């Protein structure tokens, strides 16, 4: 095997590996494109995203979907009745524009157009979209400022720029930790991330106002595939495991609330420690921005 695969080769490869079965399913990388769309349409992430779109742009009709990948978001938005333009630089039938065109035909979507281009080189008319939506792609920008500037250029005045699930790092060491822990980085080498400061600086420079910065534990949009209930119960589960460990040490005395609290304090078990996004490599943020 050569040193690095293409993104398409990587996805085809991990589909054959049992160790990646869960990732393939939860990241919507299944070979069955229709299955990916149907599962994404009903996901907590997409349901939450739609709520934000309707809250910030209730009368929106035209959406530009940047970095559309295999088309799950573009198709889901088109099925919701939006006029969607999908931008995807990869031409493949597996995870690129070819896949989106297949889905367009299957779902008979005249309100979906597909173009092969990078976000930094849109070649679209100024102020043409009510919403520019970018899912899991801004962190891949080869020029972050140009990426956001192009998005801003094609948004109508008072329109929405919404970025979903972008990897965030806080310093060089944190970036290295993220890349070391990313399951696919060693295969294709295309992962990247920026700091919140860098994202927000590029957004503001492009004439956009950050209305909402959604941090990792703020919303299921970012921590999916974990569910809301799983995240809400994380603290209770951590306490339960700590009590089990305490029981091994002191037996039935572990049932005494005072001793439990003493033990929690000793091991530093707090809500803040459990919901510490710095313990999550490459944690994801989302941004809701309005064009001034």
TrEMBL record:
Keyword Methyltransferase: yes
One annotated GO biological process: methylation
Cell membrane among keywords: no
InterPro entries: Diverse_substrate_MTase (IPR051052), SAM-dependent_MTases_sf (IPR029063)
Gene3D superfamilies noted in UniProt: Vaccinia Virus protein VP39
SUPFAM superfamilies: S-adenosyl-L-methionine-dependent methyltransferases
Record keywords, A-Z: Methyltransferase, Transferase
GO function terms (MF aspect): methyltransferase activity
Pfam families reported in the protein's UniProt record: Methyltransf_23
Classification via PANTHER family: METHYLTRANSF_11 DOMAIN-CONTAINING PROTEIN (PTHR44942), METHYLTRANSFERASE TYPE 11 DOMAIN-CONTAINING PROTEIN (PTHR44942:SF4)
The protein's name: Class I SAM-dependent methyltransferase
């Amino acid at each position: 095997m050569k040193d690095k695969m293409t993104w398409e080769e990587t996805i085809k490869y991990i589909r054959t590996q049992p160790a990646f079965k869960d990732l393939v399913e939860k990241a919507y990388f299944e070979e069955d494109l229709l299955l990916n769309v149907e599962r994404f349409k009903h996901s907590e992430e997409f349901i939450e995203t739609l709520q934000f779109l309707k809250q910030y742009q209730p009368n929106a009709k035209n959406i530009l979907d940047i970095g559309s990948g295999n088309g799950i978001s573009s198709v889901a938005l088109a099925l919701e009745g939006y006029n969607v333009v999908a931008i995807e630089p990869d031409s493949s039938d597996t995870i690129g524009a070819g896949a989106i065109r297949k889905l367009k035909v299957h779902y008979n979507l005249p309100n979906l157009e597909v173009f092969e281009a990078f976000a930094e080189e849109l070649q679209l008319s100024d102020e043409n979209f009510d919403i520019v939506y970018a899912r899991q792609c801004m962190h891949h920008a080869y020029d972050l400022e140009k990426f956001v500037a192009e998005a801003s250029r094609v948004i109508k005045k008072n329109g929405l720029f919404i970025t979903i699930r972008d990897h965030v790092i806080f310093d060089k060491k944190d970036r290295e930790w993220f890349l070391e822990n990313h399951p696919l980085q060693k295969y294709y080498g295309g992962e990247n991330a920026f700091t919140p400061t860098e994202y927000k600086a590029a957004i503001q420079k492009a004439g956009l106002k950050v209305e909402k910065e959604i941090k990792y534990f703020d919303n299921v949009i970012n921590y999916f595939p974990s569910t809301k209930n799983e995240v809400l119960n994380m603290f209770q589960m951590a306490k339960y495991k700590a009590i089990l460990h305490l029981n091994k040490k002191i037996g039935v005395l572990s049932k005494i609330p005072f001793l439990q609290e003493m033990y929690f304090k000793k091991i530093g078990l707090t809500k803040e420690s459990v919901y510490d996004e710095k313990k999550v490599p490459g944690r994801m943020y989302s941004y809701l921005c309005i064009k001034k």
